[in-house]
Amino acid sequence: MTARSRILLRQLHLWLGLGLGGLFALLGATGSSLVFYIEIDKALHPAIEQTVAGNGPDWSSPVWDRALATARSRWDNPHGSWSFEATGEPGAIPARYYPSDHHSHHGDREMVWFSADGTQILRAEPWGGYLMSWLYELHMHLLAGEVGSQIVGWSGFAMLALLVSGIVVWWPRGSWRKAFAFKRNAVALRRLRDLHKLTGVWSMALLFILVGTGALLALPTIKAQLLTAVIVAPDKVPDPQSGESEGQQITVSRALAAAHRAMPDARLASIDVPGAGSEPFRMRVQLPGDPHRRFPSSFIFIDQYSGAVLAVHDVRRGNASTTTAKWIRVLHDGSIAGLSTRILAVILGFVPLGLFVTGFLHWRRRLAARAQSNKTGRFS
């Protein structure tokens, strides 16, 4: 690389850092807070803490029908739909209520927690109306819906350019030992520079994964296009409809029994109960080899009137792109290897803040030093 190219790249890195550094720090810090957001939310709302012996409700539990009856007695909307989470743990049952039968990622929804037996509502709050959900919206959408998702996603790709340019600018042309050195006794300007570069170098690979997966999660269409271009088009999740558009909806227990027969080795993760219309029941399930416990990638669709299995999406039978896609979320939220990587993700989320602060202070000190040098030159 020529000296001129290096200077231009250094300028690109500087202005990308000044322009995106604050956003990068915000997304990193909010992401860190969300790694344990379920645990934090429980601590902030002791009303949903219930001490119950045994395991949480699963495929054959009657609790789901009781919880649905409790839900519909309060939200008497025939077109409203519900999503119950099967945590596998005893205690309160978390659920989402959608006023319409369309589970839009940006649509209105209410978060509801039922008692362990499904007969009581312990807590109900609109999504975005309490701290952890507000932080989630800030992190994922900048509180701006789809527009915010686009900003987060595309700025993520710009942040990848920021990281790469930083490494290229740092890349040593001489001694590697000197490149990794931190001069404790140097002037403040040099110490800031060393702290900034070494923090970036040591965290580069993990930050690249964190930022890249975040950009893909924010831009699912772009994710699919990239996977198609690099590997093959990912398998589409089926979108079947019930055979009728009206009638007597079957019980949740019956729908679960049909789904379990279709995939007897699956672990239940969530149950989507449709409102009136032709939408089917949808069971999200975790199959062996699927890395995400809370949001696995396999589904079973059940006709809400006849109980027939309409479609099965088995991620194990997916192509290479489908297999690749299932790892994106666990890489981003740090759950890939359990508690240790979640803690690492928390720490890593604050690195962009450190990079922004050290980079900004270094830039300000350089400007001050240059101004002082020019002033001295004029009066010498």
TrEMBL record:
Record-given protein name: PepSY domain-containing protein
Answer yes or no on keyword Transmembrane: yes
> What Pfam families does the entry give?
PepSY_TM
Q: Which domain of life is it from?
A: Bacteria
Q: Which UniProt keywords apply?
A: Membrane, Transmembrane, Transmembrane helix
PANTHER family in UniProt: IRON-REGULATED INNER MEMBRANE PROTEIN-RELATED
What parts of the sequence cross the membrane? Answer: 12-38, 151-171, 200-219, 343-363
